[in-house]
Amino acid sequence: QLHLVQSGGGWVQPGGSLRLSCSTAGFTLANVAIAWLRQVPGKEREGISCMSTNNETIRYDESVKGRFAISRDNARNTMYLQMNNLKPEDTGIYYCAAEKPFYGDTFCHQTDTYEYWGQGTQVTVSS
Length: 127
Known about the structure:
The chain is mainly β.
């Protein structure tokens, strides 16, 4: 079964940092576009960042721009989300996602329609 395996997350105080990791199971990370999405309490799951297959296109939601960074290590088949200056409103369940480049190697999106998913990991930001 093709999927992603997440690690990282947990509790952090406001202003702190966390790094989420996500490894592939059954497919090669270099061949897919990737994304991170989150579901905060009371809201639907939303995309916060994506990266195209060839890494040329990177997008961030305005709420995390300048604080979060998406990256990948294709040799390790692992993708990352570095989260800095975390705020209480960043609290939620974070998901990694990936899909084959149906729309080309330079395209990525932040909608809730990805092909492969991680299991989700809780991030809590509070004092």
